[in-house]
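Dear colleague,

As promised, here are the two records you asked about, laid out in our usual form so they can be pasted straight into your sheet.

NAME FIELD: protein one
SEQUENCE, THEN STRUCTURE:
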Amino acid sequence: MLYTRIPFVALFATALVACQSEAPSGTTSQPIAGTDEVTMDHHSNARPVEAVITHLDLDVQVDMENQKIFGKAGYAIDVHQGTGIILDTDGLVIEKVTDKSGSALAYNLGDSTMLGRALRIDLRPETKYIIVHYATGRKAKALQWLSPQQTADKKYPFLFTQGEAILSRSWIPIQDSPGIRFTYAAKVKVPHELMAVMSASNAQERSLDGVYTFELDKPVPAYLIALAVGDIEFRAIDERTGVYGEHSVVDRAAWEFADMGKMVKVAESLYGPYRWGRYDVIVLPPSFPFGGMENPCLTFATPTIIAGDRSLTALIAHELAHSWSGNLVTNATWNDFWLNEGFTVYFEGRISEALYGADYAGMLAQLGRQDLVATLDQIAHGAHPEDSKLRLDLKGRNPDDGMTDVAYEKGASFMRLLEEKVGRPKFDAFLRDYFDRFAFQSMTTDKFLAHLEEHLINPNHIELNVEEWVDGVGLPDNAPVPLSDRFAKVDQEVQRWSKGTAAKELAAKEWSAFEWMHFLRHLPEGLSDAQMHELDAAFGFTKSANSEILAAWFEQSIRNDYDPAFAEMDVFLNTVGRRKFLVPLYKEMLRTEKGRLMAQTIYNSARPNYHSVSVHTIDDILAWKDDHPPVNF
């Protein structure tokens, strides 16, 4: 998911590290919208069959004080038919639209809908390049503006963007569909005491005048354009990997992610060359709504994976894997999201297995299976039981609704089943060919299934009900069951404790974070206050530095009304905006009247610290409307 290109001259060219390489022979960088395989994307106003973006030149200034981005966006376009082009916008203030010579072009903004507002621009027959002068509006959904107090160093403000799924249109007028790919270049002006980085080529030193230039020469969809601005520094890990972060974070992050270079080499040995030049990570403030976001060249990551023991870095393997499954071959619409995430979870497991062994990968897969089973149960009893299918139908809904464990874990389970059917060598060869054959293209579920049948199922005479997996609800009976001997031993210790063995006598001294997570997830129901106190005294759960263990403990604390953990949970929920942690904790609190009141009280103070992605989700869970708590608050 990365691409960039020319128009701005690099002011400090020697300080830039190129994030670019040539597409392999025999592949095409032509976006799917420019072929005969145009796919209808119900989450974009764009009509690529009429006119499509091929390159973006972004020239903007970031006003940290007034929390606004303003400037101009220029586009090279291909006009296939018709006399205009449609861009997606959401809350943007459009000042004027011109051609390359500066001559005004007529435009109008459509009505406001869930998709934002369509920007319709009239084109002359000779128009091949357009420029939109604009500014972001108040509360742009992709942008999170943080005060100094909300950062790690508490010295300067911070800004980061989050474009997936359809939020890039709130800070750039763009054709915001994963099926439309284009290259981009950018010039970004920020306050001189801050540094800007993007999902493209990046400087490793701070600019003297606050001007930064970026280039991505490979076509990516709009959701992979990302920007972060803050008081950040760079630390190299090896010749092509490194970490950005605030001063108090960056060295710890560089130590935590020391295996990044090894991960890249393992990934290349599995599925072909890493095509994006550098692979770097920026550790953002804790309000970032996801564990990580696979922005090209520069993964955006949550600080909650810095545990001090390198125990949670499988997330880095996941985001790196997206450099093939997602960024290189991308789901054409959000109904095809499983093509990004199912492949990536499988790939993540293979990287983890190669580096840390089969036991490690097995525990990772088993935790994922536990998450999937819980998600499928919730979906089955919810308003959209059809969301347990791999191929979704999200027309008229927010595509975030489809970003569940189904795409990730059911998709990965399907990949593991295919591996079982043909054997690992043949499946690896199939995946490597898939990434090479469709590099820099978008992929629909139908197109993938046709390719799967022709190149894997038929040649190997596989008997498999693919429709049951892709278009059936729930998890098919032939889904592989990941096993872990280490988790079996944890289960034994849970049983020992349940039968009276003191917590401090359990054989848990060498447990990894995964084993502790499994332990906490499988504690018996209805624990007494004394039992919770014993566990906490023996293992220090309430003060754990590991966010995964802490979140699992907080769930047990809510479930068993363990008051001593609630003050720390309040701090955690007011600081961490990662949706993976927020959703189960708020949902668990809603099970009781005491918990409901606690959830509403905490959310009332925590909500301003969350990104709009998390706000949208938790608002729905708590029935929070129009920036006000429920009537019965």
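NAME FIELD: protein two
SEQUENCE, THEN STRUCTURE:
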Amino acid sequence: MEISYLLIVTFMFVLAIIDLTVGVSNDAVNFLSSAVGSRAAKLKTVLLVASIGVFVGAAFSSGMMDIARHGIFQPQYFYFSEVMCIFLAVVISDVFLLDLFNTLGLPTSTTVSMVFELLGAAFVISIIKMASGEMDATIVDLLNTDKALTMIISIFLSVAIAFVFGLVVQWISRLIFTFHFRKNLASKIGIFGGIAVTAILYFMLIKGLKGSTLVPTDIKAYINENTMMLLVGSFVFFTLLMQLLHFLKVNVLKIVVLIGTFSLALAFAGNDLVNFIGVTLAGLSSFQDYTANAAGVAADQFVMTSLQESAKTPVFFLIGAGAVMVFALCTSKKAKKVLQTSINLSSQKNDENDMFGSSPLARNVVRVTTNVVTAISRKTPQNVKDWVNARFRPLEEREDVAFDLVRASVNLVLAGLLIAVGTSMKLPLSTTYVTFMVGMGSSLADRAWGRESAVYRVTGVVSVIGGWFITAGAAFILAALVATIMYYGGLVAMYVMIAVVIYLLVRSHINYNKKQQVNAEDDKMQIIMNSEDTDEVWGVLKLHAAETLSHTLKFSANTYKIMFEAFSRDDHRPLRSSLIKIVDEKGTMKKMRRFETRGMQRIEQSVAFERSTWYHLCTNSCQQMLNTLIRIGEPMKEHAENSFSPLSKEYVNEFKPYCEQVYQTLIDINNIIINNDYSTADEVSSRAKDLKHALANLRKEQTIRLHKSSGSLRMDFVYLNLIQESHEFLSEVRNLLRGGNKFFAPDNNAKNAE
């Protein structure tokens, strides 16, 4: 029996190491975004500072381990077999959940999932115990309802609190410093730096020391008794130090940003470490207590009163976890992509970043907010508005800087403080979302949410909050289900679940390796947006544009053929699926066009003027092709879904050759563009023109039939629409070929191509 549970604990430790690596790779890089986005230091320097913070934070995180031990349920009412069932259900559910959310591409949070998985597993085991009648207790007795409710409220309130604090603090900071902050540092930077460093010192060290096993008790007592004196002394010292550094021509804001990076990394490790190893260490503690004190008592009879005690996590576990996190942080291949996403979201540049898309809720929020702001503006004296607007007048920064050092300082210091407050109160907060919401609030205060981007950023905020609720519900239900299966299935069910988790881990690893193969696309985008060599940008841009047009052509050709064949079989399912895919393709095409248009702004102006007309002709043709497919597919889908008379065999046989010719024309044009060989362009264009004439004749013939028809008019109308739109489809295809011939022409032949 002990061997079986030892294997379970071992598996939990393996999973904890994996969680540490994945968690740091995906979440911890968020505390790097402000330093990297503002270019406060080289990436290696930022990583070094963050690594030290992570390592120190891991050593101070012992107190947070109590959440997994007795923060959600009352362990004195549970037996060893039951708590192991709860803990194993949590780690297994976590893998299931992460795999599901990664597959669906939905946002998630390790903090939210851990809390609600514990709550779900403990809840269902409590219900089973109550139903069995083995004890006279209520759900309030078995679960730590007060503590659980406090943690849940703190998690969800942290979204609003982080956003509001980020908005208010950044607005005040910008009023003080303005965007021309370099002219306003002499009399203010000392106090600003003193407040920032003192606040970090208080929350990161004084508060953090309470949960650390590395600091002697007498030192803790001294700090607690002399807290105010230490704070005042620190403020005076650091204010003078920062002012002196400014006089010595040292950029104090960069120092504050690096200290803030350290503090946020420390807060991340101190707060989020429990998400990765807290449950595993609680399981180890339970196993050690059982093997040391059970003495012949069955696993389902040994009460786990030991979990009521505060966690005394061995230092080597914390140091080992910190080492794993530092290693993952420095070697993560995902860091650059996550960093770029975070930076783009809060960038001062109004780049119409629509990575989250738009939503009716976001549009209404933006509209209402705009109306409220307009109403307030009308009531505000003009001189006040002029003064505030002058303080918020943007300053042109380097192209590689997403926002300035003032906002980077506020983001880092404020996010670190908020997370540290939660940690000191032993309340789990989502580091990812606190950082995200502070960044969103500060970017709103800095007026980075312009009319062109506000709806997308509001949608992003709503998506994150919605992801929290989805994560919470899914974690609770899944952990409850897994715990129920393992409770009734015993050790056999536990090992089956472990086998399923291993399979999911292997599958996720394989899928990740497949995703790594598409990094060439990201590399092209990085070159287009970051390279200073205009010739290199132009060469890569042409290649990227050719691939975009080729993708749309192949998609359009296949979709056109699929829809006709599905309508011929009277099958509505492929029609519905095709229309959904067309909408997705339109969204992708829109993003690629916006990105490539920005790339056109980075090439030689003469080349851009010469080629932009033909580029936009190509992309307009692609968009119109997709619109034409929608106009073809929607009548077909409606006809098939309503089970109207299917397309007659006569019409199927009549149009099938035309469908094949349209399909082949698109494939031929795709080959011309992707191979950049236009030697056959005139011949293909001529064939397309002849096919258009043939379809025009077929349209006239079908119109005559329509007036003489005594059969199904609905079917005749859909068939006529197919012919008409196919004719228009070919017109756009020919325009695409014409524009491609001139856009991709060699530079020295460009004018001749016109």
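A couple of things worth noting about protein two: The radius of gyration is 31 Å. The chain has two domains: 2-508, 522-753.

Best,
R.
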